[in-house]
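Progress report, Aim 2. The chain analyzed during this reporting quarter is listed below.
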Amino acid sequence: MPPEADAASLAAAVLAATTPKAAAAAVSSVADFLRRHAGDRPRAFFADALPPLLFRLFVASPSSPSFIDLAAGDAALAGDLASLLCPSGPLLAAAFDADRCALLRFAFPPERLPGWLRLALTSAESDVVISPLLAGRIGSELHLSVFEYYLFWFAYYPISTAAATTTNTARAGTPKASPSTSRPLVKSRSRLESWVSTLASTAGRGAKQKAERPLYLKLLYAYLKEFVPGACVPSRGGCGTLLRRTFSEVADAAESFRRAEFFVHTLVQFWLVGDDFSPLPVHTRRECGLPLQSLKSRAHAAVTERSPSPGLGNAVKLFVMYLNKSCGTIVDASNVFEGMPVWKKSSDIPVGYWNQFIQRPMYRFLLRTFLFCPMGADMEHAAQVFSAWMVYMEPWKVQQEDFDEYDLPPPGARNVNRVDEGKRQLCEASYTPAWQGYVLSNYLFYSSLVVHFLGFAHKFIHSDVALVLQMVSKVLQVLCSSNELLELIYNVDAAYHSREFASKSYSLDHMLKYVPSIREQLQDWEDGLSESDADGSFLHERRNSDLRLFSVDEEGAYNLLQLLLLRAESEIQRFRGDAMQTVQTLDSIKSQMKNVFSKHVGTFHLKSLPGRENIQGHVHTGVFAPKHPSLRKSPLIDVKNKGDWMTRPISDTEVGWLVVMLIRFSAWLNETLRLDGVGADATHTGLRYVKFDSNELSRVGGPKDAARMVLVGAWTLLVLMGQTILHFMRTRGIKINLRFLASKKVLAAAMLYVVFSVARNVLS
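Predicted structure tokens for the chain:
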């Protein structure tokens, strides 16, 4: 049978496979075909069979899971896929062979590209190289080699669920051939259109699939080891060792770095940048002239409703773990790779070469997750993203043993040796001054992002109080894990705000020289990202234009933590079941707060930490005050309505802007009527009796005077009734809450009543 017929039958078998057994048979057929034609470079396979194979490998529908998803419950299929897709497997070997002779090129589906890459392809070409991914741009299309085409589909897998919600039309991409071989292009297009049409409306994985993809993470780690080795950095001319290399060695090193750079940038753009409306640094965006304002306006509405993709956090965690391990190798051992210098971001901040590429995308990825994760989102997915942040903050703890579980088993083997957990904890490393450059270069991860995360914690404390408290405890644990680390973070903050240092181990001049770069990072990394009262938290209403980790105002981390503890206490009191573990976590947070803030914030009159014995339901003593000017004078957060705060997150059953207006009006009424507990008279004075003189009554001179006296009496009675009601409300802590009027059901009933009344009057 000719290769063309074999390729067509392979494509049909791949598309028809919907069960683990059928998928394993299709994968085995593909592997056998590639081994039989190892030296033939079968163009028909790449033109006709590769696109549907990659589509079925990495994209699924509710009725037909992807092969990677099917492998989660079938060990035989997982083994076959690992053999086919591993770096030394037949598929990538054939791809490299085809790329060496430039057999053909592919165009990745533009609707599956990150938003800003789609915009870049529709814009005029710029002389500034803004991304290695655009090196193959020809007009408005992005032409990729076979290997690059495979990497794009591989990177697309973790985000396919989120992308499916915004992509209504899915197609697997069209292979581009040279003019001399354009005839097979027509045949391949007709075949692709036939199978793409059946899957166009069902792209994406089902919501009930498991978040973790063990096989996918193992493949990711195998590719990182193969294509991004620890010492893979660009060579610099003038190094003596490099001059003694042969031309072939230099060419191989350059090709190896180009491949590593393309792989890293692909993962960064698909996973971290995605549809970010500010994907490039401000100065780069100005140089290239991309019209990103239109992208920003389109993305603002969508980004607020996007949940973290299932499994994406785990993939990002492994990605940053590996790059941080490489970073540590380069920083701590300058002689690991002869001839490769220690790369520095500034004159004396040594960082890993790849870290400078992922800093801004990683920060904005985390910040978008914390700011725009919608209510009702799966907290497990958010926790995965959070774990990636924790790994990024502690690169010194990453060890080779952490990657043992990600190793692909050798052929015929099933188990991988793992380090015992007890031994693993004993060999954990801690922060040392050697990592000072890394912390300073990534300072916002340890400062500004912590405050943003506390806003996220306030937003979701009602959703899962135990998980949120565990996350908060982990953040504080990182900050207080080392006195040297905490001292460094505070001294930079003190230099930023021109405060007195807590320690004399750092000079003022030494810290001040980092302030301009940190201020520039703060403005650039948070470009366009802001918080508003649309999320119902009332914690922030403008972008984080300052460092507030050690601030003592209402937006400082300490006050936000105090308020969070109060809210957590009330949630725990309503908790059904065993809450002992959650209470222990709460106590641990209080202890960690003392370690983090007692020394540094104590200079600024640190308030005492709240204890459970002082908590009564939701009522507290005004530790936190809302930021809005119209609410600062009224203790809005003390307002309660049947046990719930008026400042609880706005739900889908309410009109957001009307909720804000009614809360402010209710707070004003409570303050005016002295129902807020401030200056309220709790002593009942009783009714006052007024004695009337009979001579005065005899002087009433007619009906007018009698009517006036009746009106005065009625008004006096109403005032007395009002005072009695107010006294009753003050003594029992009852307050006015008009928020229920913002309910969509109430508004709908009111509108129906108005329409009915108008219609009745018109008809009558």
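The radius of gyration is 32 Å. The first strand starts at residue 105 and ends at 107. These observations will guide the mutagenesis work planned for the next reporting period.
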